[in-house]
């Protein structure tokens, strides 16, 4: 029978949160005040997802006697491994081959992340609770529809080309992950799931929130490697990594 370890109710470390914020904001200011930071940004964007994937595999192995949690953390591990491969592909195309990485195989790796992260969150929701109330159904149904509709309302006057349909596909997938994360955060509060999973879901929420923002700013071709949206990704990565480290030490 799958159970939740009692130790997972350990409190959040304020020092860890301050350290994460310091790293993220410090790195963001750094790349905005020095020149030729592309390699630095790509390197940072590779190390963190790679680390999250490794720790996810470690936690999944720790849960080898639990079918639900072992599978869910493998989904998380494969999702971040896919992100790592996407970032690596972008780096090779952009810095070494001098080829525009969009569109490329990297986009396939980026997209794989969303079903993996959604499956991770869904497996936990399935274990702890099932959406039954009207508010639950609103969160899970209306949020993805609202986000995708807003995107369509902005892009509907644009040309119906590859970028248009590509954007709809990614925004729809991201909005589903976003809605699941909001619902998960709602049901995990005050439950036996403990702070580790709440931190995890908060990190995912930050991450996919940044993704949604990214697809909107890309409509106006405003994204750069030093854009503020990167703060959401770095923060989401490190919060999830902190959750995994905290989770592993509690098992």
UniProtKB/TrEMBL annotation:
TM regions (residue ranges): 12-34, 40-60, 72-93, 105-122, 134-152, 164-185, 197-217, 223-245
Membrane among keywords: yes
Highest rank taxon of the organism: Archaea
Keywords: Membrane, Transmembrane, Transmembrane helix
Name of the protein in question: Uncharacterized protein
Source organism phylogeny: Archaea, Nitrososphaerota, Nitrososphaeria, Nitrosopumilales, Nitrosopumilaceae
